[in-house]
Each structure stands twice: as structure tokens, then as C-alpha cells.
Write a structure and sequence with these properties.
A 4-stranded mixed β-sheet has the order 1-4-3-2, with helices on one face. Strands 5-8-7-6 form a 4-stranded mixed β-sheet, with helices on one face. Helix content is about 20%, strand content about 35%. It is of the alpha/beta class and about 140 residues long.
């Protein structure tokens, strides 16, 4: 079994795709817009002007697929309370780069810094309200001890 996150952006998924490509080096695997659906949604399921909005998309962040959508037009479709995505990276320099990129327009929850389990760990919310944890791998010598 494999778990993949699926995020709903309530209308700004295109902006999120662009942001994650720049901030994380994410790769667009696929994008399907509502107007491209092989079946029309039920009457009233999405706003009339949502043909260009993203029905389903997949990006690759490192080795992980992250799926996302604009949802069905409901403002409450966007909300990430109680969920956080974590990026595990090789070193503190990479952690700092990603932390800086993701905090652009976002907010700091826990400043990036050394902890007992990592040379660099921090938490933030990006400009879309998605919570992230970033943790650099502990050095091999420290893990062996």
C-alpha cells in the first residue's frame, strides 16, 4: 500500500502548481481541466466558469506523487487543518533552501534550526495554508552513535 496526499485548493490550484514547481522543483506529471473531462459533472456541481480550473493534477515532489485539484468551487474545499506534509532532505543547506522558498508569502510556525534529531528542522505554512515540516537527515556519525 502507498498513501499519496490529495490537496484541494478551492480555485487557485494553478497558482499552487506554479509555486510548487518553483519552490520545490516539482514536476507536473499530469493536469486535467474540468472542460477536458470525458464526462460532464452533474448540473450545479461546479461553477459555470470553471472550465479552465483544475479537476485533477499530479505533481512529483522528490519520489512522492502529490495530487491536487481546485475542488468543486466550494470555498470550504480549501482547508488543511490537522494535516502537514513533511520533506525529508539530505542536509541542512537543502532544508534551508526549501524552507526559504516555501515561506515566501507564508508564515513561520517553527524557525528552521538544529534539534536533537536533525541538524535542521522547521515548520511553516505556505501561502496556500498548507502546513510543511522540513527535516534534514541526521548525519551518519550521529546516527551510528
Amino acid at each position: 500500500m502507498h498513501v499519496e496526499p490529495y490537496l484541494f485548493f478551492g480555485g487557485n490550484a494553478e497558482e499552487a502548481l506554479d509555486f510548487y514547481e518553483t519552490a520545490l522543483g516539482a514536476e507536473r506529471v499530469m493536469v486535467m481541466r474540468f472542460k477536458e473531462s470525458p464526462e460532464q459533472p452533474p448540473e450545479g456541481a461546479i461553477p459555470d466558469n470553471w472550465g479552465e480550473k483544475i479537476m485533477h493534477a499530479c505533481i512529483k515532489v522528490g519520489d512522492t506523487n502529490v495530487m491536487l485539484s481546485d475542488g468543486c468551487g466550494s470555498a470550504d474545499a480549501q482547508g488543511f487543518a490537522g494535516v502537514s506534509l513533511t520533506l525529508q532532505v539530505k542536509d541542512a543547506a537543502e532544508a534551508a533552501r526549501l524552507y526559504g522558498a516555501l515561506t515566501d508569502g507564508g508564515s513561520i510556525v517553527m524557525p528552521l534550526g538544529p534539534t536533537f534529531f536533525s541538524p535542521a528542522f522547521g515548520m511553516l505554512k505556505d501561502r496556500f495554508g498548507v502546513a510543511w515540516g522540513i527535516v534534514a537527515e541526521a548525519e551518519a556519525a550521529a546516527r551510528a552513535a
